[in-house]
Amino acid sequence: MTNVMALDLGTTGTRAVLFNDKGEMKGSAYKEWASFFPSPAEVEQDAAAWWSATREMIVEVLKKTKVDPRDIKAVAVTNQRETIVPVDKEGNPLANAIVWQDRRTTKECDFIRNKIGKEKVYKIAGLTIDPYFSASKILWFKNNRPEIYNKAAKFLLVHDFIVKKLTGKFITDHSNASRTMLFDITKRKWSDELLAGTGIDGAKLPDALPPGKVAGNVLPGAGTGLDPGTIVVAGAGDQQCAALGVGVTEKGRVKCTMGTGTFLLAYSADVKLDPTTRALCSCAAIENSYVVEASMFSTGSLLRWARDTLGHAECDEAAAINQSPYQVIDKKAETSPVGAKGLLFLPFIVGAGAPYWNPDARGTLFGLAAGHQRGDIYRSIMEGTSFDVKKNLDVFKEMGLDTRELRLTGGGSRSQIWSKILADA
Question: Can you tell me the distance from the alpha carbon of 40 to that of 412, in angstroms, rounded to the nearest whole number?
Fold first, then answer.
């Protein structure tokens, strides 16, 4: 039987999943990795850890399923987007990767805004100017670590880094490239105008292929357990893949992924832009189609922060009854009434994404009083993020998008109370 393998490199870890030719999952394996926070505005990861964890999980899923590697037809990669790492010509990292959540590049964004202009960037790339996107991170290396910038053969996204390790080729795909702020989403090529305006050397970017095209073959000695010569397919960004996976392939359907952040994606056959640049437009996982997107940076990461800073009792209780701490947190949130007893939470701990695009915004817990309990704080987080989603859905409607059906995915969707709060909002 023919099988295919998917490698999903998210913000917090990597998952290898094996499917048969009927689309049935035969097995999976997952491993977390660490993020580093040199300052409150900075988020980094070790790209070598991506590759180490990915290799381990490929080996583990092969061991679990007892599938002969020769029966795996192809491997595809999906990934956390925008995160960028400089590499040498062999694909070895020259510094830690700057993660999509990182907000250090406000000066670089000001430079792009003054040199090129917000409207021109949006018209070409479908993106607003924000530290979220890769171009500002590459510029940061050029301005602050010129020795790294000059030495770098390429700047790679997570997808590209893994493809390089598997195949030896520098390849990205259109959906990932369209999140860099350097890609012309209409012409589907690197934009000469944006490269010239930013001063970024286009030779330091990988070749861009449509999603689903063959990127290369697994190299001998890759250390993955995969059969040398196995086809490696250019995948797509994780949010575009999630949209495809839940059927956002026609008008009227919107995908809402509640993971580390929340990402709303609606299908569009053509480039569709918002006159006030609140929503984004990027290349979809399906060739020659698009997604309109609203990106909110903090959702699951907020509850993880609450777990780690406030939820020690919930963690202890969860361990005693063999449950996830989040299940116990849900129960505590259920004890709080609608409105969380007057607590209002603004979910901007790493700046505000859509529709505000304010990198200087910060999280706020407003109305805290002596009578509040942890359950009220947990519920206020769920309510604050849910109203952020509603605000962005209202923007989609103002753009004329059909939003009759919202399809919920991601870790947050496993929470019944959070899903209900979102539906009520």
Answer: 24
Most confident of 173-187, 248-262, 312-326: 173-187
* Contacts for 268 with CB less than 8 Å, ≥ 6 apart: 281, 289, 290, 291, 292, 401
pLDDT for 281 beyond 90:
yes
**Which of 183, 204, 238 is the last residue before a domain boundary?**
238
pLDDT at 349 exceeding the cut of 90: no
Provide the pairing of β-strand 207-209 with 171-173: parallel
72: helix, coil or strand?
strand
Which CATH number is 228's domain given? 3.30.420.40
Strand pairing category for 231-237 and 214-217: antiparallel
Domain identity same for 266 and 206: no
Alpha carbon of 260 to those of 177, 350, 385, 411: distances in Å?
21, 12, 12, 8
In 3D space, the residue among 207, 88, 194, 79 whose CA is nearest the CA of residue 135 turns out to be 194
CA distance to 38, 117, 186, 252, per residue, from 152 (Å)? 22, 27, 28, 44
pLDDT bracket for residue 299 (50, 70, 90) = confident
Q: Which domain holds residue 395?
A: 246-425
pTM score, two decimals?
A: 0.86
